[in-house]
Design goal:
Keywords: Membrane, Transmembrane, Transmembrane helix, Transport. This protein is mainly α. Helix content is about 80%, strand content about 0%. The two termini are about 15 Å apart.
């Protein structure tokens, strides 16, 4: 009986992996295109930078809420049900973009999308733990998933650019994403998901998630990820605005800076698997976070003339930080807790993604230029490097990762 459980066909798992890859691809298409949409919103609705940034922080706030308060559903209802629910809400919200031209209604729809993303993303992140044989395997799989996220982040802004050149509304990006999401929901419905590991312990609930926030490993990895996210969102939310008035010697580089950033980030995530096979993840995190910090410090001193090359280059250094920290944080816990801990990490991820660009917009409005917001982002980048340096020398999660490493037969 146990043999039939352990000898699972690789085909269903491969199908599930590809479904997960495409979910992250679709999510990135919409979330990482916001930097291209914000200038259009400012022009179309006469908004300030702080007001326009709501297009980013509103859905991120709902992702944070969903991750914290609904993340346990991936453990209690099951991965498949939670993912299906999220995909259907996402799809319905995207289609409603065709029926309004109101900024307030757009924000409401984005909040629904954020809630949906929190559901299917916690389900998908927990699922990755189910189908991984060790925390090393989990880290490599997470980097592959984020690689497809990186590709979606290239396609989304490019698609918005094509729509705008053709004088077609940017809202069609969401219509396209809605169609893709409906197809993914149909495929997920027919997919054979592995069962969640059952134990005699008390079923996972919201109370379990609340207790997990106090856990030093969940909190430590969540705060490190929050620092990273604050440096990343600064690029795709505000870099297009920073480089909008660039008049230097590299106008073409300024035009495609965001695309270059996303290409380098996506490429780096696939290279990450190669790096992780050869070097310790602690050392790689320290060096990559140093690269990010140097790109920001260089921008601080060199201004927009240096930013046009340094900020896109930071994508290469950012590539494997998030998926590696995310997977290590989840791998510190038993499989039956993966949904809850993924929800906690997602809460801090989305909260940082919501607040960091908002504060950058407020600072930029106060001082009169978007470059002042990047002073704050530089501070986040430096603190992240110091945190990764501490992790490299002290390795505080070594014991928890060893205990959480599942034994394969």
């Amino acid at each position: 009986m146990t043999k039939s459980h352990t000898h699972v066909s690789s085909d269903p798992l491969q199908q599930i992996r590809w479904l997960t890859y495409m979910m992250f691809f679709m999510f990135a298409m919409t979330s990482d295109a916001v930097g291209m949409i914000i200038p259009e919103l400012i022009k179309e609705f006469g908004l300030s930078m702080t007001q326009a940034s709501a297009f980013h922080y509103a859905p991120m706030a709902l992702i944070a809420f969903s991750g914290l308060f609904l993340g346990f559903l991936a453990d209690s209802l099951g991965r498949k049900t939670t993912i299906m629910l999220g995909l259907l809400i996402f799809s319905a919200s995207c289609f409603l973009f065709a029926f309004s031209t109101s900024f307030a209604f757009f924000l409401l729809l984005l909040c629904c999308i954020g809630l949906a993303i929190g559901l299917f993303k916690t389900g998908a992140l927990a699922l990755l733990g189910d189908i991984s044989h060790s925390n090393e395997d989990h880290t490599k799989t997470m980097n592959k998933v984020e690689g497809f996220f990186g590709i979606g982040a290239i396609v989304g802004p490019a698609l918005v650019g094509i729509l705008l050149v053709q004088n077609v509304s940017w809202t069609y990006l969401y219509i396209i994403a809605g169609v893709m999401c409906l197809i993914l929901a149909f495929l997920a419905w027919h997919a054979d998901y592995p069962p969640v590991v059952k134990t005699t312990a008390k079923p996972t609930s919201l109370a379990t998630t609340m207790k997990m926030i106090k856990d030093p490993y969940a909190l430590g990895f969540s705060l490190a990820i929050a620092l990273y996210v604050a440096t990343e969102v600064a690029i795709y939310v505000w870099m297009p605005t920073l480089l909008k008035d660039y008049t230097g010697s590299w106008p073409l580089l300024a035009t495609y800076a965001l695309t270059i950033f996303f290409v380098l980030r996506a490429a780096g995530r696939f290279i990450a698997v190669w790096l992780l096979n050869r070097y310790s993840w602690q050392g790689v995190m320290a060096y990559l976070s140093l690269g990010i910090a140097l790109c920001y410090v260089g921008t601080l001193f060199g201004g927009v003339d240096w930013a046009v090359s340094l900020l896109p280059l930071s994508g290469l250094f950012m590539s494997m930080v998030y998926p590696t920290l995310n997977s290590k944080g989840i791998s510190c816990f038993a499989v039956q807790q993966h949904g809850a801990v993924a929800g906690v990490i997602l809460f801090f991820t989305a909260l940082s993604a919501a607040l960091a660009p908002l504060f950058m917009g407020m600072i930029s409005d106060y001082f009169g230029h978007v470059r002042y917001g990047f002073y704050l982002a530089t501070g986040f980048a430096v603190i992240l490097f110091l945190a990764m340096l501490f992790n490299y020398f002290k390795d505080p999660s070594a014991t928890a990762l060893q205990q959480g490493n599942p034994v394969t037969e």
